[in-house]
Amino acid sequence: MRRSFWGPLTLTAMAAFAIASSGGAQQAAPATNSDIDRAAMSALEKMGYYLRTLKVFRVQTRTTRDEVLPNGQKIQREGKADLLVRRPDGLRAHVESDLQDRMYFYDGKSFTLYGRRVGYYATTSAPATLGELVDVLEEKYDIDVPLADLFLWGTDKAAMSQIKDAVDVGPSEIDSTTCEQYAFRQDGLDWQVWLQQGANPLPRKLVLTTTDDEARPEYSVTLTWDLAPAYNDAAFTFDPPSDAKKIVFAGDKTGSGR
Amino acid sequence: MITKKSPRELIAAALVSLLVAAPLAAGPRGGGGARTSVNRGGGVNRNENVNRNTNINRNTNVNVNRDVNVNVHGGYGYGYGGCCYHPVATAAAVTAAAVVTTAVVGSIVAAASMPAGCVTTVVGGVAYQQCGSTWYQPQYAGTTVNYVVVAHP
């Protein structure tokens, strides 16, 4: 602030700028390349490449997710998930929250959603790869694949170009593992990732802050990795318990149900 | 028998009613939740996906109610428990009675609003709920179970 030097001229300019920008967002300056730390972007890319190299892995998570009541009040929900992944065509996931218990089975041919507590399952044919499955489930069935980012980073489906701000925050310890913390900004979303330091840049924690909601709800997940899980291929195929009842996916019905 | 709802269920019920009342037009504010993916739900489809997240909320809520109403048979439905509070006894009565129910074929009923006293029946390999004279087909809409009123399968 060198306001003494330029005096009235600067004040006038500042006032004009203030008027010009007052109708818009508070953060006036558009993102420029200088807001993007190339090293942070590079770390993200390396994480993506590294994730691509993992053929089989198990990851267990603890999550919290804010829901926003219509009055703006946030309610935080606890959850956890346990995923077994076999690239490119195997997923078994058990996702539990306070209120819902669901299992996902994908074996490269079919996809099954099973609710243990409700006792219902539905099965449908599925595409050949996990990346495609993420798309189909979202677009046709309105189902989010848990931790879908793990299947998208390092592919052309990763939204790298949406990042407008990238910062290397510094070292941070997650579950006794030294990580490097990075922070990114996109339209409507601020997010942070903690990448394990060293040769295996695994994401160990993620925090997503939804910024286009006034309440700025957060989603936080910590990840515990097992890169050599014991499993067999049958794990990816649903074998219905005797008391499970088959139902349909709304997304498979044509015309009816709406 | 369910005689008292926990605060969680009450919040869930509140979310259900509010989200059902104003599900899609709400825009980015209110009744939503945090995004859960960096690479999905941004950009062009952002608003759509935010709304989808609200559905996820509704879904999670519904399951509590669903466990109350469906798994714990014999509880009283606290939705519009019209048709089947007392079991309409026989299958023979079903077709005739269907005419007088208020349930319209094709309408979708949240699990929280399902009547009590339903019986699970498997027809053609898939499950239905028969609640007195009305038949419902359960389905996964997203990861939520809801019920579509159908003709006698």
Question: What do these coordinates show?
Answer:
The complex is a heterodimer of chains A (258) and B (153). Chain A is of the alpha+beta class and 258 residues long. Chain A has one domain: Clam (outer membrane lipoprotein receptor (LolB), chain A). Chain A has four helices and 13 strands. In chain A, strands 7-8-9-10-11-1-2-3-4-5-6-12 form a twelve-stranded mixed β-sheet, with helices on one face. In chain A, a hairpin with a 3-residue loop joins β2 (74-86) and β3 (90-97). Chain A is globular and about 55 Å long. The model of chain A is unreliable at 1-30 (pLDDT under 50). With 153 residues, chain B is of the alpha+beta class. Chain B has two domains: 7-71, no CATH class; 91-150, no CATH class. In chain B, 30% of the residues lie in helices and 19% in strands. Chain B has helices spanning 7-21, 46-71, 94-98, and strands at 108-110, 119-123, 126-131, 134-141, 144-150. In chain B, strands 1-5-4-3-2 form a five-stranded antiparallel β-sheet. In chain B, α1 crosses α2. The radius of gyration of chain B is 17 Å and the shape is elongated. Chains A and B meet through β1, α3, β10, β12 and β13 of A and α1, α2, β4 and β5 of B.
